[in-house]
Amino acid sequence: MKQEDYATYSKMSDADLLDFVTETQGSQRGHLARHILASRQHDTMKKATIYAAIAAGLSALGTVIQAAMAVMAYVYPPPH
Questions:
Q1: What pLDDT digit, counting tens, does each position of 17-58 carry?
Q2: What is the distance between the terminal CA atoms of the chain, rounded to a whole angstrom?
């Protein structure tokens, strides 16, 4: 397959690529379609992992702020 073929197939929708995946196992178009679909899936998983890491970091930051506030409340109790 040529680079132009890869660029053309990359523009196709998932449904169109799935038509090529169902071709015979030795089909070059089928191999290329499977590769592009797997690449798209990996990109999606990578984005999801990044967003999960950001959410975990924000949660940890919130926990640190809560702990700091608890220590401040202990060290400097409100006047009675």
A1: 888 787 766 678 888 888 889 998 899 999 999 999 999 999
A2: 80
Q: CA–CA separation, 61 vs 48, rounded Å?
A: 20
Contact predicate 23/30, CB 8 Å: yes
Confidence of residue 3 (pLDDT cuts 50, 70, 90): confident
Q: Are 51 and 35 in contact (CB under 8 A)?
A: no
Tell me what pLDDT residue 33 has.
86
Q: Which residue has the tokens 């089909």?
A: 27
Residue 4 backbone dihedrals phi, psi, to 5 degrees: -65, -35
Q: How many residues comprise the chain?
A: 80
Distance CA 34, CA 6 (A): 12
Amino acid letter for position 42: H
